[in-house]
Design goal:
By secondary structure, the protein is an alpha/beta fold. The protein has helices at residues 86-93, 115-128, 153-167, 206-209, 212-215, 228-235, 238-241, 285-295, 331-335, 365-372, 384-392, and strands at 2-3, 11-13, 19-21, 44-46, 74-78, 104-107, 131-134, 174-176, 179-183, 253-257, 304-307, 314-318, 321-325, 347-351, 356-358, 398-399. It comes from Marchantia polymorpha (Common liverwort).
Length: 402
């Protein structure tokens, strides 16, 4: 089987058909609870401090988490750690036991489809970081192991949240030293994809190519053939997100995060993908609406949303919001430098001692490409590596494993 979206040569093709060398890397005192990069030092964008002095009360039924020392606070990001792979779990174990001890980690989904492995991973991370935030990905909701004892993916979601709560991992919006960190639950729907499909090739449907359709189990009336799952999962945010203060106009840094993509522009064009139908299983329009609720229709200099899922390192600003992905991904992808630079993970996205939010983009192969080249969704000419695949590897079974 072929993991179909990552096999790219060490160059990109720009809009003129030229080869472009690719990068080798791909306000408050209470909480509502439910690596420094190894490249050259970054500039940071100064975020606003909380001038109001307001103390937000903890939500009923949730624990208030207090932070007293605001000096040297850093927030790190990683996604798609997939610790079902031994090498990835070892990567977690090998993270410094002291370097991150006073800092915060945002983990943007896809830890493990096995509950025991999930718990082991989260306990390891909680030992290494002061705070760990998590939102589940699609792999986390797979129901293919009898030992997990779950009836469906919604029951699996409840078990994941309960496991996080027992360990001290945060899954609800929280205010850490004046920085609001807001997890957003989401799921994808096919209608999210509004760009022209690639014609003339035998490209299997998402139902045949994506394991989610067999590994996830959804109770009636939720149905994979429409947007009901994405709509339902989005609705699960209401209990926490709708009771938050007006963060869009708050004088503080707000960081939202999800597993799935809020915008299709955060994925390469179809002609660049070995599985051109990938955009049909990556994002949600309801998610983008949630993100805009917190950051505004025009965004701001400090608006930031973090995500995962596609295993493409990414850092770009669209309509005033900074979108960042920093995936660990699978061992074979790191070996080919397809996810970004492994040694730079987790990346530091916020440092209070250096003004706040990371300003300079960290090297990300595809977002760097789109900073140089205009997106051409109507262009049906396949990238050379995609064309080679469909012309010379017709007998390979396409399997999308993200």
């Amino acid at each position: 089987m072929l993991s179909c979206r990552f096999h790219f040569p060490p160059f990109c093709i720009n809009s003129c058909g030229e080869k472009v060398p690719s990068l080798q890397v791909g306000c408050g005192q209470q909480v509502w609870s439910s690596t420094d990069s190894l490249i050259k030092p970054h500039k940071f964008c100064r975020s606003s401090k909380n001038k109001s002095g307001n103390v937000f009360k903890a939500m009923p039924g949730t624990a208030a988490h207090h932070e007293s020392d605001t000096r040297g606070m850093k927030i790190y990001l990683v996604s798609d750690v997939h610790t079902d792979h031994v090498e990835n779990l070892e990567w977690i174990r090998n993270l410094s036991p002291t370097e991150y001890k006073q800092h915060t980690l945002i983990l943007a989904g896809d830890v493990s489809d096995n509950l025991e492995t999930f718990e082991i991973t989260m306990k390891l991370l909680k030992e290494k970081f002061n705070n760990v935030f998590f939102v589940p990905g699609n792999h986390d909701l797979w129901c293919r192991r009898e030992e997990d004892d779950v009836s469906d993916s919604l029951s699996k979601l409840e078990k994941l949240i309960e496991t996080c709560r027992s360990i001290g991992v945060l899954t609800n919006p929280s205010n850490i030293n004046g920085v609001w960190i807001v997890p957003i639950l989401s799921w994808y729907h096919e209608s999210f994809d509004r760009e022209k499909d690639i014609d003339g090739y035998n490209i299997p449907s998402v139902q045949k190519a994506c394991k989610d359709f067999s590994a996830c189990k959804w109770p009636s009336p939720l149905d994979t053939s429409n947007d009901s799952i994405a709509r339902h999962i989005d609705g699960l945010n209401d209990a926490t997100l709708n009771t938050l203060p007006d963060l869009q106009h708050a004088d503080c840094q707000v960081i939202t995060f999800s597993h799935f993509l809020p915008r299709f522009e955060l994925c390469p064009e179809k002609r660049m993908l070995l599985y051109p139908k990938l955009p049909k299983m990556i994002g949600s329009d309801w998610l983008e609406a949630r993100v805009r609720r917190f950051h505004g229709e025009r965004g701001s200099d400090t608006a930031c949303h973090l995500f995962g899922h596609t295993h493409f390192a990414w850092d770009s600003t669209l309509e005033g919001i900074r979108y960042i992905q920093a995936p660990l991904a699978y061992p074979k992808e790191r070996a080919r430098m397809q996810n970004g630079a492994q040694k730079e993970l987790p990346i530091c996205i916020y440092d209070s001692d250096r003004g706040g939010l990371l300003q300079d983009p960290f090297p990300s192969r595809w977002s760097e490409y789109y900073r140089r080249n205009k997106r051409e969704p109507d262009n049906q000419k396949l990238a050379p590596w995609v064309e080679h695949h469909y012309h010379h590897q017709k007998h390979h079974q396409i399997h999308v494993d993200i």
